[in-house]
Amino acid sequence: MSTDNPTPLSRSIGKAIANRRAIANLTQEQVAERLGIGQEAISRMERGVAIPTVARLAELADVYKCNLDQLLTEASDREDDQAKAILTIVGRLSNADRLLLIEWLKVFANRLLPSPTST
Length: 119
What we know:
The protein has helices at residues 8-23, 28-35, 39-47, 54-64, 68-75, 79-91, 95-112. By secondary structure, it is mainly alpha-helical. Helix 1 (8-23) packs across helix 3 (39-47) and helix 5 (68-75) crosses helix 6.
């Protein structure tokens, strides 16, 4: 499916596809070759201009050696899906790096919270 004006969802899916490709350390050309399609098709999916079918997403998941749901949860704006995506990212870190990230996240999240107003 193609769209002249990428939607937030198509851009999110494209970003997740590009992210998984980077994690797999593959180029767009390598992915295109494995799928038997042109490199421009991969580029269009990653930019959110073309929305891949479920079958194509499954093929991409196979190439990237991840679960299909990982591609979809990374593109979701649902809180529980975002938590799963964060878990996947954190899970690749060493214990020391996870602890460092958790401390940084606490500080950062506290800075983003609205300050209480005094009445």
